[in-house]
């Protein structure tokens, strides 16, 4: 068979090469062909400036004073949160976050509005005649007719009752009968007794009316309220496993009381003004827990 001329082989090779190049070029040229228009991809959103969440700027921001004790953190059904606000004022919070402020006054107030405010009238730093109208229940520890206050209030998961005591009549030097009340707050599974402005030891009847208590909030100044020996006698009669000092005017006053009791009781100094207490967390041996206040 005669061989194919060179020029025919060259033409065939060129044709094959052109076909191959067309196959390679078509995919690249395809987007240039008419097609249905597609919307442009949206631009990435620009985040607003949030210097308060920028880790690099945290140290430049002013500190936020949000005490952990006042965050609405749920409590277990058997727990109570106690916060020492100062002087004789505590904030007691129940598992349903019912708030009780003791010896509510115009000078030392909790940072949140209480549902219940208890008061005593020995001094103006223990009561106010113009409480915040948003307080649901205002319980005076005295009556104007001289009879015992006799409170017995239930609200949600809190029960508050009072036991009357006498105070000094500062104007005449005598006795103001039933001028003070020991308030007993029952919340969770605990009974908490706030002794108020106690001026005398307790009678057997008063001890019986108070009943078993788990926590005692005790004035320890030793002069304006009951003297140190008398206060120790009261605490020995109440037999509470946990006692929290209040109503002291200096570190010296507090230390003097703690020195008096440390031979018979354990003493713990807390760094925070709040403590969560339950029946199971009560100390096996009676103890004083000192919470910092103002």
From TrEMBL:
- What organism does the UniProt record list as the source? Rhodoplanes roseus
Question: Is Phosphoprotein among the key words of this record?
Answer: no
Q: Which PANTHER family match?
A: UPF0173 METAL-DEPENDENT HYDROLASE YTKL (PTHR39189:SF1)
**Protein name per Swiss-Prot or TrEMBL:** Zn-dependent hydrolase
Q: Which domain of life is it from?
A: Bacteria
- Enumerate the UniProt keywords alphabetically: Signal
Signal peptide residues on this chain, from the entry's feature table: 1-37
Question: What SUPFAM superfamilies has UniProt attached to this entry?
Answer: Metallo-hydrolase/oxidoreductase
Cite the Pfam families for this sequence.
Lactamase_B_3
